[in-house]
Amino acid sequence: MMEHTQLIDAIDIRTSIRAYDPDEIAEDQARQLRMTLDAINMLSGLDIQLVLDQPKVFADANASGHFTNAANYLALVGPKDNDEAREKAGFYAERVVLAATLYGLGTCWVGGSWNREEAARHCQTGRSKELYMGVVIGHPEHHLTYTSKKFEELAEIQRTHRESKSYEAFTRTMSAEAREAAPDWFKAGVEAARKAPSARNGQPILFSWDPQTGTAIAQIDPELNGPTATNDLGIAKLHFQIGAGSGEWGWGNGAMFIKQ
Q1: What distance lies between CA 107 and its chain's CA centroid?
Q2: I want to staple 169 with a disulfide (CB 3.0 to 4.6 A). Which of 88, 109, 165, 220 is the partner?
Q3: Where do the Putative nitroreductase TM1586 domain residues begin and end (predicted)?
Q4: How do residues 20-43 score in pLDDT, each as one tens digit?
């Protein structure tokens, strides 16, 4: 894995890890993560926090077998009742997830499969902020074997890990002709978004390309607009942006991506 250091490489090998080794995250890895978080929080205005060694947060999930040895997490903290901040939390926390993937760590987004009250006790929120969601983080089970695998092996694991919606499903608001005529950067962006995590693997985000303006649009599928869809929108936008190569999204449902 060492020769693969780009975020697009992380997209190609990242999977949701539910079983972890009990080994602690090494001090140098924790320091790398916190440095990444410092930069991300300054850029986003969020307060994403790394919380280590709190297995009580996942006691029920570990006991049921939903997780194994889950104990560490990223706490996604931001302003209360703010949809844009929730979207940013998805976008920027996934950026940390991809960095952690390149460090050889495993991750899994969590919404309901943890003790939220216990999780909130170990992070700082204050009166004006709230805990949106979390991301389990740690060493994947048998991690020494896992991290010794070649990039191509990890990419194959990701490819067969779960089913993903097709390019056609992600772009179902477009005609067949428009899908075919879309530029390569748009198709590459959608391909990266197909590999993005989402709540219950619902993949509720739709993408379209406007030939008149040359911009892409991301929107929440109205048929799949649940409580975590705004977070999923941010995650999918990040994957699309990395896959497209360059460009920038506006915030919000239905916002445009301007290719640079």
Answers
A1: 9
A2: 165
A3: 7-244
A4: 999 999 999 999 999 999 999 999
